[in-house]
Amino acid sequence: MPPTRFLALAVLLGLTVSSASPIASAGALADRVRVLEDQQAIRAVLIQYGDYLDAQDYGHYAALFAKDGVWTGGYGTATGPAAIQALMEKSMGKPAPGFINRTKFHLMATEQIAVTGDTATVRSRFTVFTADADGRPAPSRAGRYVDAFVREPGGWRIKRRTTYGIIPYSGP
Amino acid sequence: MPPTRFLALAVLLGLTVSSASPIASAGALADRVRVLEDQQAIRAVLIQYGDYLDAQDYGHYAALFAKDGVWTGGYGTATGPAAIQALMEKSMGKPAPGFINRTKFHLMATEQIAVTGDTATVRSRFTVFTADADGRPAPSRAGRYVDAFVREPGGWRIKRRTTYGIIPYSGP
Amino acid sequence: MPPTRFLALAVLLGLTVSSASPIASAGALADRVRVLEDQQAIRAVLIQYGDYLDAQDYGHYAALFAKDGVWTGGYGTATGPAAIQALMEKSMGKPAPGFINRTKFHLMATEQIAVTGDTATVRSRFTVFTADADGRPAPSRAGRYVDAFVREPGGWRIKRRTTYGIIPYSGP
Fold first, then answer.
1. Residues in A 104-133 with any Cβ partner in C closer than 8 A
2. Is C150 exposed, middle or buried (0-12, 13-18, 19+ CB in 10 A)?
3. pLDDT confidence of residue A23
4. Can you list the positions of beta strands (E) in C74-154?
5. What is the pTM of this model?
6. pLDDT of residue C7
7. Taking CA atoms, what residue in A is nearest to B19?
8. Are C102 and A23 inside 8 Å of each other by CB?
9. Pairing of strands B155-167, B65-73
10. pLDDT (tens digit per residue) in B88-115
11. Does the beta carbon of C15 lie under 8 angstroms from any beta carbon of chain A?
């Protein structure tokens, strides 16, 4: 190939190669966008956790846990959605058909979500309000969660949740 | 063109064509970024809703609604910003000039925002604190919103808001 | 170069040039992703501000301020992390070794974060709960922050925070 044509090709090639950098970084950019989406998806699980607890919908509540997700609390320990649902329904009772929540309000807040591939560590805070004698919402508990999350085929799930009461205080 | 040169061009062409895949997906990536931005913009409207209510700034409050946005509540129904502002000012009274809010605090939280093109469905929670006899913030109402949003030329606006009280309970 | 070959190259060049538009916009897209990441990073600072205050960890608390960041409040004014830490420890006292917070709960919420390059203006709300005589969380203060943030080599930091009480009311 004569030099000028080679040069012409090199210019083209140069254009293409120089464009390889943004093209390559498109992959990195997609990863960063995915992290932002993952954070949103995990935040949705934190919120639904409160929604389902208030609704006493222990089936959907338990489905927020991973297949080997561990529930630990005052009622003992259970592993996996089926066992968690069974423990909750045994401990809390199944709601009557047509149950409408009028007394509990979980307020989830201040999520800090660190995603690493298909796992994440998550810190957040909760405040629970319960209806007082006048029918007003009264704060009864305020605390924080430290969670391990895992990405399953169906989405992000809770692998392990540790609950700390702040007011009143309670250790994990 | 001799085969070798054609091959050289084909290699170049191949490079360019192979790069078409990330280039094409850049459009998809831009769409995903736009959804994340839309969620932020919608969240801002939810927050400003509380800000303007507390400030009794019913002009800016009403401007958060779409041109055919519907306000429904204890004072009746109104459609569009002008009618909503008029209803609020008739029902709540216009604040005195220089009014500073010292008694109401809307806390908006737990937005779950599903964007589909130029519309979105949004679920969120609110807690209202009012000043008690000692001048402290006392929770007076806790509930949730279910909203339809629409993208207008000026940005995202509320098309329809349904308010559910949890404590105290009130249906839509 | 014969016209046909020139055309062939032009086609290639055309492909490359036409691809320049998405490539160029990849830079703009990266900027938009960075803004979303910046908003998350700034939100984390707002949340940690409450975490460290509750933990009486004034070293980490002060490190959330920029090197020329200004703290202004009831104890006076201090500039830069070292001076802010010293002022807080003088005013609030250093916590005893092994201190565990059981009485204070800062709830940060409703961040509205406008990023412009390496600076940002931020509005948010806070509610402080303190343990009452029965050991329950009782809201004691509700207000809002207006902040200027700056990007430093180590990340986003508070350059200036103005605190407004809503209930009870207090000006900046």
1. 107, 109-110, 112, 125, 127
2. middle
3. 59
4. 76-79, 104-116, 119-131, 137-152
5. 0.87
6. 46
7. A23
8. no
9. parallel
10. 999 999 999 999 999 999 999 999 999 9
11. no
Q: Which of A110, A126, A170 would best serve as a mutation to test chain C binding (most C beta carbons within 10 A)? A: A110
- pLDDT-wise least confident of B5-9, B148-152, B159-163, C38-42: B5-9
Residue A29 touches chain B, beta carbons under 8 Å: yes
Q: What is the structure's pLDDT at B12?
A: 45
Weakest mean pLDDT among A68-77, A79-88, A98-107, C109-118: A68-77
What pLDDT does B20 receive?
A: 44
How far apart are alpha carbons B71 and B117 in whole angstroms?
A: 23
Q: How many other C-beta atoms can be found within 10 angstroms of the C-beta atom of residue A64?
A: 20
Interface probe with C: pick from A34, A105, A166, A169, most Cβ of C within 10 Å: A166
Residue C21's pLDDT band, with cuts at 50, 70 and 90, is low
- Report the amino acid identity of residue A170: S
Residue B13: CB atoms within 10 Å: 17
- Gap between the Cα atoms of B64 and B51, Å rounded: 12
CB contacts, 8 Å: C135 with chain A? 167-168
Q: Please report, for chain A, the start and end positions of each structural domain, with discontinuous segments joined by +.
A: 3-8+21-167
What number does CATH give the domain C3-8+21-167? 3.10.450.50
Nearest alpha-carbon partner for C148 in C135, C139, C138, C157: C157
Please give the mean pLDDT across all residues of chain B.
89
Buried/exposed C60-75: b ≥16 CB within 10 Å, e otherwise = ebbbbbbeebbbeeee
Tokens describing residue B101: 């809010």
Neighbours of chain B (3+ CB pairs under 8 A): A, C
